[in-house]
Amino acid sequence: MALPRKIYLGLGSNQDRKQNLANAIKGLKRHFKDIVISPVYETRAVGFKGKNFYNLVAGFTSAISLESLGRIIKDIETHNGRIRTVQKYSDRSIDIDILLFGDAVLYEDGIDIPRREISKYSFALKPLADIAPNLIHPYSKKTMSALWNEFSGPLADIKQVKL
């Protein structure tokens, strides 16, 4: 059996945002214990004109395999109305991305870990820095707090909202 590792997921929604994020968190809590949830942030849609997104990061420790985690995520997304046949940049009922999977660095076969969005977009980096400021990024070797302090990318104008 694999050793437990810290896992961080990015969650976002721009359709029935509060309800879909709440449902996704409930789905994750059915599978994982001691989940830490970041504050929720509102940001503009990226890559298309659409309603603003609500985004957060969930962190937990688990020995789950990457494949099993992927299945759980897809089940939660499907249960919450995620339609996979639409174009990549479009409205989303719920989108759950694996941001970090322990200290794994995997860029192959459609796998993007650590997720490049961490250092590219504030909606991934800011909530991650909120709940894990001293976590070291496996590729850059900088803390999430340091990455956020250096951040100058798009969507730096995010605002915290109540869920």
Write the layout of secondary structure elements.
Blueprint: E1 5-13, H1 17-31, E2 36-37, E3 40-43, E4 53-62, H2 66-79, E5 95-101, E6 106-108, E7 111-113, H3 117-120, H4 122-131, H5 144-150, E8 159-161
Antiparallel strand pairs: 1-4, 1-5, 2-4, 3-4, 3-8, 6-7
Number of distinct helices: 5
Shape: globular
Query: Any idea what the CATH architecture is?
Result: 2-Layer Sandwich
Q: Under the CATH scheme, which class?
A: Alpha Beta
Into which percentage range does the β-strand content fall? Answer: 25-35%
The name of the CATH superfamily reads 7,8-Dihydro-6-hydroxymethylpterin-pyrophosphokinase HPPK
Rg, alpha carbons: 15 Å
Please bin the fraction of helical residues.
Answer: 25-40%
Quote the average pLDDT. 88
Amino-to-carboxy terminus distance: 37 Å
- Low-pLDDT runs of 5+ residues are none
Briefly note the CATH topology name. Alpha-Beta Plaits
Q: Tell me about the biggest sheet?
A: 6 strands, antiparallel
DSSP, total strands: 8
Instruction: Compute the number of structural domains.
Output: 1
Which structural class best describes the helix and strand composition? alpha+beta
Strand/helix succession = EHEEEHEEEHHHE
